Amino acid sequence: MAMIKNKDIQIRDPFVVPVKEEGKYYLFGSTDSNIWGNGTGFNAYVGRDLEEWEGPYTVFKPEEDFYAENNFWAPEVHKYEGRYYMFATFRRKDNNLLGTAVLASDSLLGPFTPHSDGPVTPKDWCSLDGTLFVDEEGLPWIVFCREWQQVGDGQVCAVRLTADLKDIVGEPVVLFSASHAKWPTSFQHPRYPGQDNYVTDGPSFYRAANGDLFMLWASFINNTYALGVAKSASGDVLGPWEQEDEALFQSDGGHAMMFHAFDGALMLAIHTPNQTPNERPLFLEIEEVEGKLRVRAT
């Protein structure tokens, strides 16, 4: 199979699973050529150096009776209790609202099939970008965004999952709203005259060696996509979450995650620019400086 370079891969919301035993990285993301329309499934790529990849490999393709047909977004793959679980966002047919569902497979390259009965996020909420968080007691949570269209000031929320990842336990807790941080800016939308709106996108977690718990999340600065960082004061998913004053990345990129490369380097996976069909994966080295995350100067 011919190798493909980062500059030739159209992908949003990149998510990397390093498999050290194989010496391979598995790259997942929103891979439809028009992710704002009909969803065809998700592809993955496999590589050894974060520069060239084999693929695409089809890892999820919906059956005819699947509960969504538009907006297949942000697949993340997590190993949990011996299987691989994909958390991905879909727009439901029955109410036209976004929600994050759980799919499962015995293999990183799928095929992934529905595991939860539709989205596990609240049915009457417009929710997206759910990620799996397993706390210090081994209990699973889903952390996700509630869309600005419903609340104006977009939220990041958390709720416990059942042990089998098929449903939620209790009611979601709002961890913070976008305007709690200083760096995002609001925007107006003709559908909501006079309302200041803020976006929350793509929460993901990084646990530092000293136990600090960081969350990456995306929003906009003057209509340009950007990535921010929050740190949990308690070291737990429920926070309280303290926001960095300035964005970590503000060059028209966002919806990122962090992982360790095989040489030990701490890496950021992000897509940029934020315009379809030009989105490409970008990998940047991150350093921890006095308890904060910074992009390492090259």
From TrEMBL:
Q: What's a Pfam family in this record?
A: Glyco_hydro_43
Quick one: which pathway? Glycan metabolism; L-arabinan degradation
InterPro entries, alphabetically? GH43_arabinanases, Glyco_hydro_43, Glyco_hydro_beta-prop_sf
The alphabetical list of record keywords is:
Glycosidase, Hydrolase
Q: Which family does it belong to?
A: Belongs to the glycosyl hydrolase 43 family.
Name of the featured protein: Beta-xylosidase
Question: What is the organism field in this record?
Answer: Paenibacillus qinlingensis
